Amino acid sequence: MSKPKFKNPVVNWIDYRLPIFTFMNHELNEYPTPKNLNYFWNFGSLAGITLVTMIITGIVLSMNYTAHVDYAFDSVERIMRDVNHGWLLRYIHMNGASFFFIVVYIHIFRGLYYGSYKAPREILWILGVLILLLMMATAFMGYVLPWGQMSFWGATVITNLFSAIPLVGESIVTWLWGGFSVDNPTLNRFFSLHFVLPFVIVGVVILHLVALHRFGSNNPIGIDVKGKQDTVPFHPYYTIKDLFGLSVFTTIFAAAVFFFPNFMGHPDNYIPADPMVTPAHIVPEWYFLPFYAILRAIPDKLGGVLFMFGAIMVLFVLPWLDKSSVRSSQFRPLYKLFFWILVIDCIALGYLGAKPAEGIYVILSRIATAYYFFHFLIILPLLPRIESTRPLPVSISTPIITASSNASTVMAMREKK
Amino acid sequence: MKFLKFLVIIIFSINFFLFGRVFAAGSKIEYPEKNWSFSTIFGSFDKASAQRGFQVYKEVCAGCHGMRLVSYRNLAALGYNQDELKAIAAQFEINDGPNDEGEMFTRPGRPSDKFLSPYPNDQAARAANGGAYPPDLSLIIKARPNGANYLHALLRGYEEAPNNIKVPEGMYYNKYYSGNLIAMPQPLYEDGVEYLDGTKASKDQMATDVTTFLAWASEPELEERKQLGVTVILFLIVFSILSYFSMRQIWAPIKNKN
Predict the structure, then answer these.
(1) Which of A17, A178, A396, B230 is deepest in the core (most CB within 10 A)?
(2) In the prediction, which pLDDT does A2 show?
(3) pLDDT of A181-213, one tens digit each?
């Protein structure tokens, strides 16, 4: 029999029958993590904590919310005015959605910059893209629930996209709506799905973590961990670092919640939904704007929908599009350049998505959309042919900056062994 | 170095905020910016002004505009005491019922009642206003971009129409309204209200007061929110500093080895 691992006999007794403490010790305490992670690696845990925050505030909000076209708007205002600290719960939830996307977008660009999607972490990456898709669906349906003007018209515009599908499009839209327009059945099903999808996200997040712990975190250098000297135990080193990151993040988050709670929202959503009055500009929430720009850039409705979904789909196959074996941009000068162009391209798409679809904005949207796909489908597969990568260090704990010192350090390492 | 990168992240996030502002700004008309007591970080409502604003609302706006989300009891936040609230509510005849005989009846308002709407339903409101619906004012400041400045400007934006613009029957020229033609006749005139506290009721004074009142109605939680916010942020800053130095200390042996 294995000898007792824990000092507390009760813990030991339980752990012998249900090895939960061994599991936690292994995955949260000892879990070897590269010692050179920078602050960009904070955003994974931040995303997880934001998800939990959203679920907790969401459950309490749902206790006070009425999913009916006649009462939804007023029930939200009752939360804002009469429920004890209801305004705080709602503003946390409302701004939490925006911050969730800020955190997750940074997390994704971190993955792009440091090549975290490459072998053997392809499934980890794919699960992450799946989480992004689920988040988008959840956020979209959540925005409909307050039943303001933007809720109603956003829902109308987005669900109408499905009518672009040939032959069955119209039927699918009627099926989604549960009627012939966005109405009470639509609101009810969106509430139901908005409640359940976050738990689906939790499930995929658990799979994401299982896949992560299989090979551990990637790191800024992007080379594999060679041994114990390259890692530190997760606790206390990364628990304290995540705590620091969390406290800074929460400070910024709190500033938004307490002082600029409606900064990222749209004033029209404080007007109750009115199917007879169309707002001058229907714009989605900011985190959908890059995709909205792609949708509008394509002159054909079906084409626009396909390209919009394609913008996410291309991420699923990214591990096989990027053929370079070097992970981190630090050693890929050309990729680094194209990475930053992609970042600018995505921000440009976001900006263009907020602008009316007319004049110069249409042309710019088309260029930016074309470049987005060009980056993933043409540049990434071809880049390794022309790019000369910089020499990789031998290990994480062997700092090598210049190529000249490279050989001598390798020699030194070999002598040591 | 790492801290520099962290700063980059924060700047990145702030950019997102600025983006939000770009999206929020929709209209091209510029309104004069006023320094509202409630729009600063530590802001609060000017209670006297809000009380005067309530008087303007009651005597001028309430003829056409309801505030269905606000109750008379909520006015306690503007400094009215319980007896005053009961007296204010009692001025209104509220439809209630059915009673034990199954009849509807009217009774004097109570503080727990919502503000009495001027029309029984939206259709009646439209019918009485030539088809134009006078919007409910409970959330008006939050429901318009740059709400407070917009409303303040709008109330003072009535002018003689320029010669090249033809103003149809039942419409009025307002330089701050989108399209310049508004169905609402000019509501505020010099000394249109006789203020209880003796303040001179100039057009600007009334526009300022009613805007303050409506800003409170849109965000009755504003003062509590900002006060709590200051406490929370101070706590979090101290907590961030403590966790930063804890982190430095825990990582010191690892950093020194390299």
Answers:
(1) A396
(2) 56
(3) 999 999 999 999 999 999 999 999 999 999 999
Q: Which two tokens stand for residue A31?
A: 């879990």
Per the domain annotation, does B151 fall within a domain? yes
Q: What letter represents residue A16's amino acid?
A: Y
Specify the pLDDT at position A371.
Answer: 98
Q: Which of B26, B41, B74 sits opposite A259 (nearest CB)?
A: B41
- CA A390-A377-A323 angle, to 5 degrees, is 35
Q: Which of A255, A350, A397 sits opposite B19 (nearest CB)?
A: A350
Residue pair B207/B215 in contact (Cβ under 8 Å)? The answer is: no
Q: What is the pLDDT of residues B33-77, one digit of tens each?
A: 999 999 988 889 999 999 999 999 999 999 999 999 999 999 999
Q: Which residues of A touch B139 (CB under 8 A)?
A: 77, 270-271
**Given an 8 Å threshold on Cβ–Cβ distance, is A240 in contact with B6?**
no
Q: Is there a single domain that holds both residue B211 and residue B164? A: yes
Cα angle vertex B169, ends B167, B172, to 5°? 50
Distance, in Å, from the CA atom of B190 to the CA atom of B202, rounded to the nearest integer, reads 5
Length reported for chain A: 417
B169 and B244 both lie in a single domain = no
Catalytically active residues of A, by annotation: 213, 217, 241-242, 285
Q: ipTM score here? A: 0.89
Helix (H, G, I), strand (E, B) or coil at A88: helix
The pLDDT mean for chain B works out to: 89
β-sheet bridge partners, residue B63: none
Q: Among B5, B16, B38, B257, which would you mutate to test the A interface (most chain A Cβ atoms within 10 Å of its Cβ)?
A: B16
Nearest CA in chain A to B234: A251
- C-beta of residue A356 within 8 angstroms of C-beta of residue A296: no
Q: Are residues B143 and B177 in the same domain?
A: yes
Residue with tokens 């004012």: B137
**C-alpha to C-alpha distance for B235 and B237, rounded to whole angstroms:** 6
- B19 at interface of A, judged by CB pairs closer than 8 A: yes
Cβ burial of A101 (10 Å; 0-12, 13-18, 19+) is: buried
By CA distance, what is B26's nearest residue in A?
A281
| Domain presence at residue B165 | yes
Q: Has residue B247 been placed in a domain?
A: yes
Domain count along chain B: 2
Same domain, B167 and B187: yes
- Please, where are the H alpha helices in B77-146? 82-90, 122-128
Same domain as B209, residue B191:
yes
* Apex A331 CA angle, A375 and A122, nearest 5: 60
Interval B180-204: pLDDT, tens: 999 999 999 999 999 999 999 999 9
State the sign of the Cα–Cα–Cα–Cα dihedral A352, A353, A355, A360.
Answer: positive
At A414 the pLDDT is 47
Structural domain of B237: 224-258
Chain A residue closest to B242 (CA)?
A244
Q: Could you tell me the CA-to-CA distances from A374 to A293, A338, A350, B37 in Å, in that order?
A: 16, 11, 18, 51
Across the interface, do B20 and A74 touch by the CB < 8 Å criterion?
no
Q: Which residue has the tokens 């929709």?
A: B26
End-to-end CA distance of chain A: 36
Looking at the fold, whether B132 and B187 belong to one and the same domain comes out as yes
The enclosing H or E element of B24 equals: helix B2-24
What are the phi and psi torsion angles at A348 (to 5°)? -60, -40
